[in-house]
Amino acid sequence: xxxxxxxxxxxxxxxxxxxxxxxxxxxxDAENATVAExxxxxxxxxxxxxDLNMPDKPxxxxxxxxxxxxxxxxxxxxxxxxxxxxVDEVLERGVDNILVKPISINxxxxxxxxxxx
Length: 117
Hints:
This protein is an alpha/beta fold. The protein has a single domain, classed as 3-Layer(aba) Sandwich (Rossmann fold), CATH 3.40.50. Helix 2 runs parallel beside helix 3. It is globular, with a radius of gyration of 13 Å.
């Protein structure tokens, strides 16, 4: 299973990548929304782990970019956010789960497994 991590915080990105790789996932990471869109244009993923608060543009732009491309029809999206005010907006975009920070890596891994099973 291929996972795209979209997280601007290097330490969190490293933590997520390490944990997911140890569980056998193939992981690509992006430090902002623009890089995520480039990765989505180049390849397909089974899951996107997406922080909504990006330095260049909102993470919702990544969801819109994803949903506009038919190749990504089956791509699951787990949103991770520190602000729960995004909930209604991202639910309308068809995300599969929303996790609110702070959250443990074990909860993230359990949610990834649940969404991909």
